[in-house]
Amino acid sequence: MEVLPAIYAFPPLKKTFKWKNFSSIFHKNGFRLSILPRKSFLHGKYRSCVDWDDAYVEDASLVHNLNRKNFPQITENFSLEVKPGDVRSYNSTLSSLLLRYASNGFYSKAKAIWDEILNSSFVPDASVVSKLITIYGSVDNFDMVSQIMRQMQLKDPDILPNICALSISSFGKRGQLECMDIMVKEMVSMGCSVDSASGNSYLLYYSLFGSVAEMEVAYGRLKRSRILIEEEAIRAMSFAYIKGKKFYALGQFVQDIGLGRRNVGNLLWNLLLLSYAANFKMKSLQREFVKMVEAGFTPDLTTFNIRALAFSRMSLFWDLHVSLEHMKHESVVPDLVTYGCVVDAYLDKRLGRNLEFALSSLSKHNSVSVSTDPLVFEVMGKGDFHLFSEMTLEYTRKKKGTYNMLITTYLKKKFRSNQIFWNY
């Protein structure tokens, strides 16, 4: 008689045969098990002997706590006892045991449970199927992945797109780009269209784990399918270009997406300005800034700080002050990056005595804050005053300080041997 491990949707016999070593493990936790032959159950020999009053619900959390070391070596088929009307708890236990078997390498036992699920009226949750697919994909068992997809298409085609989206995301987070490609091909072969969420996840993970060339191929596929690239994917691609110091390609990319898009705010314009600021192409930077304003976009703090960093590094004092006045006119509150641009520009040219005048248009007693887009620091880095301020606030354990305090401390340290007066 063939005996395989499986969990059945039938209630157990009133008098159950218990395996000593197996049942003793679980009775402490109130987890009761019945060991019954598979063939007898399939032939319905015991169905008429069911006493529903004697059945009760098992604890699904116990299955979650099992690991490979204490996983029971089951040599007999067993069934879980279930109270009528509480199918949800039973299904949770069933799904948990399925994933636990698969994740610990008991593939034949997991397949037996999976087959029972398919033959029952129970429709597994999309997240459970996605996790099962991820487990098989992680061991390169793509035949089983394809089989599961086909089986779910027959079982419940409505949840198939959700399963595909979750599986793509799961493979992507692990950096398994080949598995992600296979999932996309499976989707297309079964007639499922790649939606915006799946397409953006696909591009996002290629940006994080693939080469720039692979990322551009993935971007080309999405562009041909007319899927709109969302902000998270745009940032991921931009970071990949920045990491590879491909600033020209960064500028071409954001222009290809379309600078007129309003749903991502000033992100695309700021990235374009950043691509010019990285190589200090000041004329192009100024020209694109004017185009941005003419197109109806209002510069934000990141926009102004990109320009201020470029002006500061190039010692363009007049342009820096014009930018500060423009910022004041637009009611944009400066942050630590803005103050750092002014301080570093003047001290680099040994103009510390003029610093009080330079900062007269900025409020000295505001609390310190940093609101600039972090992508700016990936390109331009952080100035000396910015780095000093972060270290000072961390060392003194002050979550909030004023620019007045930081500037005074910075000048005392930098010019300790010189008689430089800083009067506020």
Automatic annotation (TrEMBL):
Keywords: Repeat
Record InterPro entries: PPR_rpt, TPR-like_helical_dom_sf
Domain of life from the UniProt record: Eukaryota
PANTHER family per the UniProt record, alphabetical: OS08G0520200 PROTEIN (PTHR47493:SF1)
UniProt name for this protein: Pentatricopeptide repeat-containing protein
Source organism: Olea europaea subsp. europaea
